[in-house]
Amino acid sequence: MRFGIALLFVPLIAGCATVRSAPTLPEELSVVRDQLVVYSDFKLATRHRLVEELVALRGDISEQLDVPVSDEPIHIYLFSKAESYKKYIDRHFPELPDRRAFFVESDTRLTVYAQWGDRVAEDLRHEVTHGYLHSVIPNTPLWLDEGIAEYFETPRGWNGLHVAHVKLLDAQASKGMWKPDLARLDKLAAIDQMTQRDYAEAWLWLHFLLQTTRERKLLLQHHLSILHEQAQAPPFSQAIFAVEPDAAYAALDHLRMLAAENLVE
Ligand SMILES: [Zn+2]
Fold it and tell me: Would you tell me which of 57, 71, 112, 157 could form a disulfide with 76, CB atoms 3.0–4.6 Å apart?
């Protein structure tokens, strides 16, 4: 089971620029592709399949969410060994929980740190999605930010289907332990308040909005356009319940349909 992957706003104070010159940071080898600057402590092919996929992800996000693209660089540091990654993170971000990858936004820089391994593709799709999103909408509400990242961490061509989340939510809904509550998600303000189930629910709302009706997709796109243009917006739960008061029931029906189609008993 994976842990939720954090979006972290780590304020960089004066002097923290030394992070870049720390001896354990892999920055000797780099690949530049569009917005991405990928540093690694191992030789990464310029046209590595994973890098190409991350480059294509920007177009997918822009098209699906109808948000513009930016040319602000996203710096990605890849560590070949879990030990060197952990050592670096423990030293420079000791407050962070134990995660395989994370995204840091400062006033001047978008950065992703990750360790190479079996889950690196999923991890990077998630964290780089944060990077692309924050390069055009820096203040996306937490649940929406994570929901979008969970949606786009799924492999290309899966249309955002996240089977592990379907399984988790379906099991809890079947036992009467959970039901969708977007107003509650809207109130979440800190990453450490989010449980794995909250990540899954945030994903469900995104899948519901992007993969069911044109009206719901347009509603989300409109909300994001307000955030992009005005830097703030009323809670999304207000917007959707104003036009679709039964949206939570509809989202639960959508989950049940996904479970019936994708979970083998
Ligand atoms: Zn995240």
Answer: 112
* Residue range(s) occupied by CATH 3.40.30.160 in the chain: 7-136
Q: Give the homologous superfamily in CATH for domain 7-136.
A: Collagenase ColT, N-terminal domain (3.40.30.160)
Could you tell me which residues are beta bridge partners of residue 79?
115
Question: What is the C-alpha separation between 233 and 229, in angstroms, rounded?
Answer: 10
Q: What is the pTM of this model?
A: 0.90
Residue 29: pLDDT band by 50, 70, 90 thresholds?
confident
What's the gap in Å between 190 CA and the centre of ligand 1?
12
Which residues make up the environment of ion ligand 1, defined by Cβ < 5 Å?
A: 5, 7, 146, 149
- DSSP string computed for 27-65: -SEEEEETTEEEEESS---TT-HHHHHHHHHHHHHHHHH
The 10s digit of each residue's pLDDT in 47-82 is 899 999 999 999 999 999 999 999 999 999 999 999
How remote is the CA of residue 124 from the centroid of ligand 1, in Å? 10
1-6 mean pLDDT: 30
Beta bridge partners of 105: 110
Average confidence (pLDDT) over 202-223: 98
Ligand 1 centroid, distance to 5 Cα (angstroms) = 5
In the predicted structure, residue 209 carries a pLDDT above the cut 80: yes
